Amino acid sequence: MRLPTYKRASAFDLQMTAMIDVVFLLLVFFLWTSSFEEPEFDFASGLSMPPVGNAGESTKPSESVLFDEIVVRLVQSPSGLEIRFNGESLDSIATLRSRLVSVASLGAQAAVIVDPDAEVTMESSIAAYDAARAAGFDRVLFAVKK
Question: Which domains, ranges and CATH numbers included, belong to the chain?
Answer without folding.
Answer: 69-142 (3.30.420.80)
